[in-house]
Design brief:
heterodimer; A: mainly beta; 4-stranded antiparallel β-sheet; 55% strand; globular; B: 115 residues; mainly beta
Amino acid sequence: AQSVTQLDSQVPVFEEAPVELRCNYSSSVSVYLFWYVQYPNQGLQLLLKYLSGSTLVESINGFEAEFNKSQTSFHLRKPSVHISDTAEYFCAVAGGYQKVTFGTGTKLQVIP
Amino acid sequence: DADVTQTPRNRITKTGKRIMLECSQTKGHDRMYWYRQDPGLGLRLIYYSFDVKDINKGEISDGYSVSRQAQAKFSLSLESAIPNQTALYFCATSDLTGMGRNEQFFGPGTRLTVL
């Protein structure tokens, strides 16, 4: 079985400040990890993913996440957020050929 | 054109009515999924299909049924809608091959309200 925990349901942060959205997972097999973003009134879209190789992965809009196997974490970070980053962020895990399990989401609110 | 489409985008219906939500994809993926999204609960899997002849229940399948009419089409039905089925429903697809393993591609969602 696999599971994902996103402890923070909402994270308010001022514009240009750094942010970290936390994600912890559990799985009995090797995992693939994902962060998805959902902008208001839209579907989910992939932000970044870890499949193998370097444990630090980056997105095109400045987010990064680091796979930490010992801590079973995949936290999402950005050094300076913008108003346009306001959205809900979902962490997800897939183990081997299993289906994907999503976390409950974290709403990032960027304050001007 | 969008790779994963859902119809309708919005639907209001009454308790007891039968409702069908449709999903089509042009990505050529074998795997298709139906999720529902509720505030604070994230996405929960209703049904999934790994190919046309393979249908599996997810974690919350009670009250729902599905049909995989073709590789590109996967429909979700509510046989007798009830108010607690009011939610945002998403269809998704994925491919098992290559470096995109289990990466899911989502449709725009269907907002269903059951009165």
